[in-house]
Amino acid sequence: MIAIEFILAGMLAAATPFLLAALGELVAERSGVLNLGVEGMMALGAAIAFITVYTGGGHVPAFIAGGICAMILSLFFAFATIGLHANQVATGLAVGILGLGLSAYFGKPFESFTVTGIDKIAILGLAELPLVGGLFNQDIVVWLSLLFTVALWYVLTRTKLGLLLKAVGENPHAAESIGYPVRLIRVGAVAFGGFMAGVAGAYASTVYTPLWADGMIAGRGWIAVALVVFGTWMVGRVFLGALLFGAVSLGGIAVQTVGLAIPSQLLTSLPYIVTIVVLGIISSNKRLLRLNGIASLGEPFEK
Amino acid sequence: MTNTLNRRNFIAGASVAGMVAAVGGKAAAATADDPLLITLVIPSPVADVGWGHALYEGLQVVKDAYGDAVELTVIENIFEGPDADRIMNKAIADGTKFLVAGSFGYQNGAMQIARRNPDVTVLHASGFMVAPNFSPFAAQYSQGTYLMGMAAAAVSKTGKLGSVSAFAIPELITSLNAFTLGAQAINPDIELSVVWLNSWFDPAKAQEATEALVAQDCDVIFSNAQDTPSVVAKGEELGVYTFNLNSSMKAYAPNTYLGCVLTDWSPFFKASVDAHVAGTFEGGNAFLGVGDSVVKVVDWSADIPADVKAKIEEVEAGIADGSFSPFTGPITKADGSEGVAAGVTMSDAEVIGMDWHVQGVTTPLPG
Fold first, then answer.
1. Residue B25 reports pLDDT greater than 60
2. In terms of domains, do B40 and B158 share one?
């Protein structure tokens, strides 16, 4: 029972870095651009945000600074892939590695330093409930992320901007022919994705694990990329995927503390096994993929 | 095993090395233009704390002693694997004559280098292979964690201890066992829960694991082979005692830091470099502990009751002079069978290869 309480209380916060980065990547991919540099952008955002908090800048400027630095990095990617028609996979990998290198470089003088996180905000009444109470005691970033998820769902499915993004991703030539600036929209989507990755990194290094250590993102950016496919480019499913991933990774730890005789290696790899299985199920359903997949994903747009 | 560099003849060797230091000094002076190049390769970044930091500090003492006659290079963040072999070979090609391979996974590559380059001396962390110019070295953390266990049992209110541990390898299992045995010496009913992260490096996961253990009422957490202050900082936040290995993290938990099982590699590194310079280096297993001044417990918490502190000091003196070992029977395994018979003390080789938990560790070992 205590283990379930622990998972419920922690899974939202554990899911937040995945969620923010994955939603950013979702927007970029919806416009038809596959940016594999999420890991590096998260790392750069994490380093810059940590430095900002450590030097006394406060958390709000830290999130903005982390987001903007990661966005600048994503603009390099946008310039190469959208401006110069470079291969998106190769460029994304290169930019990701660059981001990891930059984060290590900037973070070097701050290696293993710690800062103070931010306080949690409890929803009165609900937070005192037995078992599920912890679920309603989260930091402000978690609450804002939930609001952001709803807002993004609304924008993508219920507004003209969402439709525009979809048109650019599904058929850029058609969008161009009716007068929409395809390249500009794609650059905007990539920049948004970069900003969100930076914010996700900032959350990881200044709130969730308030310390800086080179390599602390530890593959979370890759999980975010996988979650976008996992959620078949739908906001709600990406949210569920992030939540499931957070819960399963905490579950792996919680099961160990109660002393069940399950090999810990298996528990550690459980989130990844779940990801692979779900991706496998999704990929086997060709209709689902064709319905939700982005038609021009990964293809450079040339007039 | 006549060539074994064990604790006793290591000390003897160190004093011999001291005698030939004058000769070594002369040799160094004669080749002042051509300093001895020492290279340290480690898998993590050199930070202000942790395993890499401890190795670096140890070599820095050697560098300070030799001055311009020694040049020290540190190559950090090197994954264990083919890339590490390439980087170590490059270091040798660049003139390194004394290589410190700072992680278990470098073993095969480092051994090949030692075989191909008889004039190069290689020290390798936590391995088991030995050659005339290749010594594995390891710290007897268990001697320190036993003392920590005594302190932990004295300050624990719930009688439940926890540990966030990297990989279930013998070195870490041994530390946990000694910790548990030390705690049982003060409170026979005490229990230990372990979370295996299966990662040397994932600060976020280490903090999640700390929270999970605290949720299970553990009130002393042993940060086992975690290079970042993740667990220690989280412990301060949650108000539970923590301690760690290798270098002190008291600054990260001023109120709840129980102490640090420090490793000071400088005496071993100094003796090895002296022997290399004098041409008398002999490869052998270096399993170093409290008696070698390599393992020390520092920064004890002021919350440890005076009577327990006195007992700890008594046991520490016993470990240092060899009259006490944490692994003297009777010791029962976690599954209830006999681990060590009454009155029998485990040999170094048995301690190094320990792959079972003692009774009181509630988490089963991963298979």
1. no
2. no
The answer to whether the Cβ–Cβ distance between B362 and A259 falls below 8 Å is yes
Q: Which residue has the higher pLDDT, A161 or B48?
A: A161
Question: Domain range spanning residue B84?
Answer: 7-139+264-292
pLDDT digits (tens, 9 = 90+) for B102-143: 998 899 999 999 999 999 999 999 888 999 999 999 999 999
The model's pLDDT over B298-308, given as tens digits with 9 standing for 90+, comes to 999 999 999 99
Please name every residue paired with B95 in a beta bridge, in sequence order, or none if there are none: none
B48: domain CATH number is 3.40.50.2300
Same domain for B107 and B181, yes or no, is no
Task: Indicate yes or no: CB of A114 within 8 angstroms of CB of B45.
Answer: no
Contact between chains at B204 and A209 (C-beta distance less than 8 A): yes
Instruction: Compare B43 and B190 and report the one with higher pLDDT.
Output: B190
Residues A145, A146, A147, A148, Cα dihedral to 10°? 50
Counted across chains A and B, CB pairs separated by less than 8 A come out at: 118
Which ranges in B187-337 belong to alpha helices (H)?
Answer: 203-215, 230-238, 266-278, 306-320
Average pLDDT, chain B: 88
DSSP assigned state of B246: E
pLDDT digits (tens, 9 = 90+) for A130-143: 888 888 989 999 99
Mutate to test the interface with A, among B231, B363, B365 (most CBs of A within 10 A): B363
Interface touch A268/B196, C-beta < 8 Å: yes
Q: How many domains does chain B have?
A: 2
Q: Is the pLDDT of residue A86 over 90?
A: yes
* Angle in degrees, 0-180, between the axes of helices B203-215 and B230-238, rounded to the nearest 10: 40
Examine residue B342 and state whether it is found in any structural domain, yes or no: yes
Contacts of A263 in chain B (CB under 8 A): 366-367
List residues in chain A touching B: CB distance below 8 A: 2-3, 5-6, 10, 14, 104, 108, 111-114, 117, 204, 208-211, 213-216, 218, 220, 249-250, 253-254, 256-261, 263-265, 268-269
Q: Which residues pair with B136 in a beta bridge?
A: B124
Per-residue pLDDT averaged across B46-65, rounded? Answer: 88
CB contact under 8 A, B203 and A216: yes
B222 falls within a domain: yes
Cα distance from A298 to chain B (closest Cα, Å)?
31
In a shared domain, residues B253 and B280: no
User: Which is nearest to B359 in space by CA: B118, B192, B117, B155?
Assistant: B192
CATH number of A2-292: 1.10.3470
Using a 10 angstrom Cβ sphere, with 0-12 exposed, 13-18 middle and 19 or more buried, the burial of residue A55 is exposed
